[in-house]
Amino acid sequence: MEMLQTAGLKLPRMGLGTWYLGESVRKENAELEALRTGIELGITLFDTAEMYGDGGAERLLGKAIKPYDRSKLQIVSKVYPHNAGRNHIFQSCENSLRRLGTDYLDVYLLHWRGSVPLAETVDCMEELKAQGKIRAWGVSNLDTDDMDELEAVRNGGNCALDQVLYHLGSRGIEYDLLPWTQQRGMPVMTYCPLAQGGRLRRGLLGSSAVKKTAGKYQATPIQILLAFVLYQDNTIAIPRSGSAAHVRELVDSLRVTLTAEDIALLSKDFPAPTRKTYLDIV
Length: 282
Ligand code: NDP
Description:
By secondary structure, this protein is α/β, with parallel strands linked by helices. Helices cover 37% and strands 15% of the residues. It has helices spanning 28-40, 56-65, 89-100, 118-130, 144-152, 177-183, 208-217, 221-231, 244-252, 260-269, and strands at residues 3-6, 9-12, 45-47, 74-79, 105-110, 134-140, 162-165, 188-191, 235-237. The relative contact order is 0.14. Bound molecules: NADPH dihydro-nicotinamide-adenine-dinucleotide phosphate (NDP). NADPH dihydro-nicotinamide-adenine-dinucleotide phosphate binds at residues 17-19, 47, 111, 140-141, 163, 191-197, 222, 238-243, 246, 249-250, 282.
C-alpha cells in the first residue's frame, strides 16, 4: 500500500477506525475477527480514542492486536480536549496505553479543540514524545484558522496530521483546509469516509453517479466512496466496520483508482465547494 511520510513516520493511506466498536460483549468476537481480518489483509493502521465506548474500543483493539508484532502496526489514539492540558494528559495517555496493551502510541491526537491553550497541549505532546510514550502527535477537527494558530505556537510545526470529516457528500475541506495541508506535506486523515454507511448524506449510496462509477469498476457504492477519498493527494482513510466481510470489501476497494472523468461525474451529483464552508463534524 502507498505510504505517506510525516513527522518521522510512515503511514499507509488506509487504516481502520474503531468508533462504536468494543461496546457490546455480544459483538466482541465478530469485531475482533473484523479487525484481525484487516491485519491479515495487510492493514497496519488503526484509529481509536479514549472517548470511544469509554475506553472499550481501545480495549478491543488491544485484544485484537495482541498476537501480532506491535512494531509493524501504527496505532492512533486521541485525548479528550478537557484532558489535553498538563493536569490530565499524562494520565490519559497512560490509561490509553494500558487499555491498548502497548507501551507507545504512533500518533496521539487532540480530539477537538477545547479550552486548553494549544501551546500547552503542544508542550505536553512534545514531552510525551521525549518520554517515548508517543512517536508523533497531531490534531483532529481543526479548521484552517485553527491550523494557522497551531503553526504559530512553539513546535506547532511538528503536527503530524489533522483528522477531519471528509466524504463524497461533504467536500468542504477541498476549498482551503486540504490545500493548506497539502502545501505543507501534512496528511489529512479522513474520518467518516463512508459517510457512516451512507447515513450522513441522504441519496449518497443510491446516487446515479455513484452507481454508474461502481458499475464501471465492478465495485460496490461503498468502495467508490472510499476510492473517492483516496483520489486526493495526501489523504488517509480510516473506515470502520465490525464485520469481517465488510473489511474484506473495504480492503478490496484499493484496486479502484478513480480518474478525473470519474470525479467529474461524481461532482455532478456532489459538487466540490466553491466557497468556504466550516468544518463538518459528527
Ligand atoms: P464510516 O464512514 O467509516 O462508516 C462506518 C459504517 O459503515 C458502519 O456502520 C459500518 O457498518 C458501515 N460499513 C463499513 N464497511 C461497509 C461495507 N463494506 N458495506 C456496507 N457498510 C459498511 O464511519 P465512522 O464514523 O466509524 O468513521 C470512521 C472512523 O473515523 C471511526 O471509526 C473513528 O475511528 C474515526 N472518527 C473520528 C472522529 C473524530 O472526531 N476525530 C469522528 C468520527 C469518526 P458495519 O460495522 O456493519 O460494517
